[in-house]
Design brief:
Number of helices: 8
Strand content: 15-25%
CATH architecture of the largest domain: 2-Layer Sandwich
Number of domains: 2
Helix content: 40-55%
Order of helices and strands: HHHEEHEEEHHHEEEH
CATH superfamily of the largest domain: GAF domain
Number of strands: 8
Largest sheet: 6 strands, antiparallel
CATH topology of the largest domain: Beta-Lactamase
Distance between the termini: 34 Å
Structural class: alpha+beta
Strand order of the largest sheet: 5-4-3-8-7-6
Length: 261
């Protein structure tokens, strides 16, 4: 067990102690064995094990009183590993889109109610452009990048995500009403990509499309941004969407190959 402190949630520490009890040399354990390994009393180990069974991270070994880790545990680390690989793989793809197609190209992932930028290739967007370097974040509700990810979440879940964060107007065109945002997400999913005309930042137009994981879920997206003075919206959409979708298909394939490997 981890040494306790004022900021430590003991129940979380105990849950991870249960998971760490399962090793290569002890892949199947009884409740008593888990309790001994994790330094817990049997009652606590019993409750934690059955909670993890309900959540899908542990399973009973058929015909025994033992338990083992399920493949769902891999998801805890796979998202981070896949994101790191995706960041490296996206860089040349994004570089190929700037500046011929767009003034900026970004890769982002959802983190709570925000989109975190993992990669960004940018030409000159003017002095008024927001800082979108790798590691920066913006509210998913107000960004085409966020809409391209949220639109492929279950609708109730997408609403909960947007509701969990502050929604303030970033420009005169920003939508903040939840019902309007949910209707927008339905349009994005039906269309296959998101469009933002100055909603995240005045003077910028953006299109974004999702990157699909092997299980069909969407956890990341790519966006292309251009200054309004450079191109009208219809012309930008017509020119940018085909290479955008080609890029997301390529990166979806890369994620699929990484998962297979």
């Amino acid at each position: 067990m981890v040494e306790s402190s004022k900021s430590t949630v003991q129940s979380v520490g105990k849950a991870f102690a249960v998971l760490r009890s399962f090793r290569a040399e002890t892949p199947e354990l009884t409740i008593s064995e888990v309790a001994s390994s994790a330094g817990l009393d049997r009652g606590t180990a019993f409750r934690l094990i059955h909670t993890m069974v309900d959540l899908g991270y542990l399973a009973a070994v058929p015909g025994t009183r033992r338990f083992w880790l399920t493949l769902k545990c891999l998801e805890l680390g796979y998202s981070a590993l896949a994101a790191g690989g995706l960041q490296r793989q996206s860089r040349p793809v994004l570089q190929g889109l700037v500046p011929d197609i767009a003034d900026a190209a970004s890769l982002g992932m959802l983190d709570g109610p925000d989109v975190v930028y993992l990669e960004r290739i940018q030409a000159d967007l003017g002095r008024q452009a927001p800082d979108r370097r790798a590691g920066s974040r913006t509210g998913a509700y107000a960004a085409a990048l966020g809409h391209a990810i949220l639109a492929w979440q279950p609708p109730d879940h997408a609403r909960q995500i947007m509701q969990s964060g502050e929604r303030i107007p970033l420009s005169g065109a920003t939508l903040t009403d939840l019902d309007q945002l949910c209707a927008r997400l339905a349009e994005v999913r039906a269309r296959g990509y998101a469009i933002s005309d100055g909603e995240n930042a005045f003077g910028l137009r953006t299109v974004a499309a999702p990157i699909f994981w092997p299980d069909g879920t969407v956890r990341a997206a790519i966006s292309l941004t251009v200054q309004t003075v450079r191109q009208e919206l219809d012309g930008f959409v017509a020119a940018a969407v085909p290479p955008l979708l080609q890029a997301t298909r390529a990166l979806s394939g890369a994620v699929r190959l990484s998962a297979a490997a």
